[in-house]
Amino acid sequence: MTTPHVPQLDDELRRRLGRRFGATIESWLDEVPPVLVDLADRWRLNLGALIQRGTMSVVIRCRTVHGHPAVLKISPDRRRIQDEAAALTRWTTTHVPAVLAVDKRAGALLIEAIEPGQPLADSAYPHLDTVSTLVTALHAHGTPDPTYRSVADRVTYLYAAGTKNYTCRPGLAAVVPPELYERGKQLAVRLAGDAPATVLLHGDLTPANILDGGNQRGLVAIDPAPCVGDPAFDAIDLVLWRADNAQTITARVEKLAPAIGTTPRRLTRWCTAFATMTALELAEASDATRECVDLLIDLANASP
């Protein structure tokens, strides 16, 4: 029997996953090739090229035995893969990819490939109706399983991870004051604790995790970090992304809030809470302008 082709796990992949998991990722990556061979054999896959994105998983393009395009993910964070698979199965909407196979022990997930599949991050900002359709589809067609993490846990994790930016680049403290970052965290914790409604959240609904599914399907959300909580949480990045003035943020909030079942004030407060985290990310981006960073700092300084 012919051994399936396995793509090389190159240095770029190792650096990306290393930033997330540390030095221990090397020993895990050394064990991945034979696991991929086994998965390809059992699931009857033709493995293709690596998809160079994300910091949680090895992601590979592939084709099923019937020639259908698919995506194989394998991660050392088995819990994250299991939660992702369960959430994608619970969402009864075409705005997420279909799950084709799961191996919990291996931390592996096979999903349909989304076509044409261009990330929203590489596109122009879409019509707000298109954005609200995606968010409402996720919230209306998913069951908030109590075994999932709460949005409060997600908030704690994100803010803890964000502080690593200060450690790696101490100069960021002059751009985004740590005390303002802490103030945002405290506001987010309060908002997470008094949600007026509870839904199954995507949990990581950034433009990088939204793909073009074509004219009939619309936007498709991938790579969820599912959690349960306030529906406004999923709209934060979609309000702040590529906003170059306060009027744009206000207009997006006024349009999206009622469409996704929240109030403009509540969505604004969530955006205020996360403005410093977004500013930190922008400050590290090579194509970001100081004006956009300052806009987020002004928002973070606003009265919640």
Rounded radius of gyration (Å): 20 Å
Lateral strand order in the biggest sheet: 1-2-3-5-4
Specify the number of helices.
Answer: 11
Indicate the CATH topology of the largest domain. Answer: Aminoglycoside 3'-phosphotransferase, Chain: A, domain 2
* Count of spatially separate domains: 2
Distance between the termini: 64 Å
Order of helices and strands: HHEEEHEEHEHHHEEEEHHHH
Residue share in β-strands:
5-15%
Detail the poorly predicted runs: none
Percent in helix:
40-55%
CATH first level of the largest domain: Alpha Beta
Explain what the structure shows.
By secondary structure, the chain is of the alpha+beta class. The chain has two domains: 11-112, Phosphorylase Kinase, domain 1; 120-301, Aminoglycoside 3'-phosphotransferase, Chain: A, domain 2. Helices cover 46% and strands 13% of the residues. It has helices spanning 11-21, 25-43, 78-90, 128-140, 151-162, 164-168, 178-193, 236-240, 246-259, 264-284, 290-301, and strands at residues 46-50, 58-63, 69-74, 99-103, 108-112, 149-150, 199-201, 210-212, 219-221, 227-229. The strands form three sheets. It has a five-stranded antiparallel sheet, sandwiched between helices. Strands 6-10-7 form a three-stranded mixed sheet. The longest helix is centred in the last third of the chain and has 21 residues, at 264-284. The protein is globular. InterPro entries: NH2Glyco/OHUrea_AB-resist_kin. This is Aminoglycoside phosphotransferase family protein. One of its GO terms (molecular function) is phosphotransferase activity, alcohol group as acceptor. It comes from Nocardioides panacis.
